[in-house]
Design goal:
Blueprint (H helix, E strand, L loop, with lengths): L2 H4 L1 H9 L3 H17 L1 H7 L7 E3 L2 E3 L3 E3 L10 H5 L5 E7 L12 E4 L4 E4 L8 H10 L8 E6 L10 H12 L5 E5 L14 H22 L5 E5 L5 H13 L4 E4 L20 E4 L3 H15 L4 E5 L5 H10 L3 E4 L1 H6 L2 H14 L1
Parallel strand pairs: 3-4, 3-13, 4-7, 7-8, 8-9, 9-10, 10-12, 12-13
Antiparallel strand pairs: 1-2, 5-6, 6-11
Length: about 350
């Protein structure tokens, strides 16, 4: 393990003394600076191997970075240097938007949790694509997922327009594309998970994907990211709709609106999506339900509350093919990546 990774607990003390979003930006800046220097880049590199097939893609390992940490795709190579087998960046919207008013990110250390209501803050599709094209991660064997959403001021009944713009824009540059319909921080967005709404949206995306596949001479997998706050019946409905439109995978899950695990703690009543340790158990339930309905072959990426290698293994045991990290990185640091890879590899031996 990198000596720099071992030092993260010390850095965390300073970061946790800062506003959560400011600390987030400072961390990305520091990681980028470390990557840009050849000496520290070598000291940071830690890629544990556990080759995995996912949606026809060859992953060096099944541990990925979840969308949301690098919304503008500006730090793909720096994040890739931490050992991820795949990285997902975004969510990107067609037009730049500032997101919700600050403050909009809050730590709950007692529960190893975060609440955010960022609201798809990003610099827009054109800047995003410039950053993606400049990165070298794919050329070095990494798998890159690009996550698309809708602008906050686009009426929900016109949401498909934004997703179609995003799909066409990212298609040539993505190993897979994630359709984010589950953020709680864009008004009415989660309504797109309803059977009729999802059916209509995916029908249009499938048609456009087919045309783009002909145009670019390659078929890029499409993935849908869903919320944890769904009933069993709603999960079952989604499991029926996804294969109908040739969707290749599902990410389970996004952040939750539930607060039962953090009741009475500081910031627990802040609006937004809760992530981190409290989400792990619910994510396992959703993954298990999806697997039972989708069968053995459909790809499931498990995300939500992976704070240890053992919890990564539990995601796989519940039915996931791969996992993603976000809040765990904030509390545990980059050493968590290799820990998860090694735990998953050892669980198979």
């Amino acid at each position: 393990m990198s000596i720099l990774f071992q030092a993260y607990p010390l850095a965390r003390q300073a970061l946790f003394a800062m506003d959560a979003e400011a600390a987030h930006e400072a961390t990305l800046h520091a990681l980028q600076k470390a990557y840009d220097c050849s000496l520290t880049r070598a000291l940071m590199r830690d890629r544990a191997l556990a080759p995995t097939q996912l949606m026809g893609l060859s992953l060096l390992n099944p541990v990925g970075l979840a969308a949301g940490l690098d919304k503008n795709g500006a730090h793909i190579d720096a994040m890739g240097n931490l050992g991820f087998g795949f990285i997902e960046v975004g969510t990107v919207t067609p037009r730049a938007q500032s997101g919700n008013p600050k403050p909009r990110m809050f730590r709950i250390p007692q529960a190893q949790a975060l609440i955010n209501r960022l609201g798809f803050n990003n610099l827009g599709l054109d800047t995003f694509l410039e950053n993606v094209q400049r990165s070298q991660f794919r050329k070095q064997g990494g798998i890159l997922g690009l996550n698309i959403g809708k602008n906050a001021d686009t009426p929900i009944e016109r949401a498909a327009d934004d997703y179609l713009i995003g799909l066409a824009g990212v298609y040539p540059h993505a190993d897979y594309i994630t359709v984010n319909i589950s953020s709680p921080n864009t008004k009415n967005l989660r309504a797109l998970q309803g059977e009729h709404e999802l059916d209509q949206l995916l029908s249009q995306l499938a048609l456009r994907r087919a045309a783009l596949a002909d145009q670019h001479g390659k078929r890029v997998p499409l993935v849908v990211k869903i919320a944890p706050d769904l009933t069993q019946e709603e999960i079952d409905t989604i499991a029926e709709v996804l294969p109908r439109h040739g969707i290749d995978g599902v990410i389970a899950t996004n952040t939750t609106l539930a607060r039962s695990a953090v009741t009475g703690m500081k910031h627990a009543e802040e609006t937004g999506g809760l992530s981190g340790a409290p989400l792990h158990a619910r994510s396992l339930e959703v993954i298990g339900r999806l697997r039972s309905r989708l069968g053995k072959e459909f790809a499931i990426i498990g995300v939500g509350g992976v704070m240890s290698g053992q919890q990564a293994v539990e995601k796989i045991q519940a039915g996931a093919n791969a996992v993603q990290l976000y809040t765990g990185l904030i509390y545990r640091g980059p050493a968590l990546v290799g820990e998860c890879v090694r735990a998953m590899r050892n669980s198979k031996s």
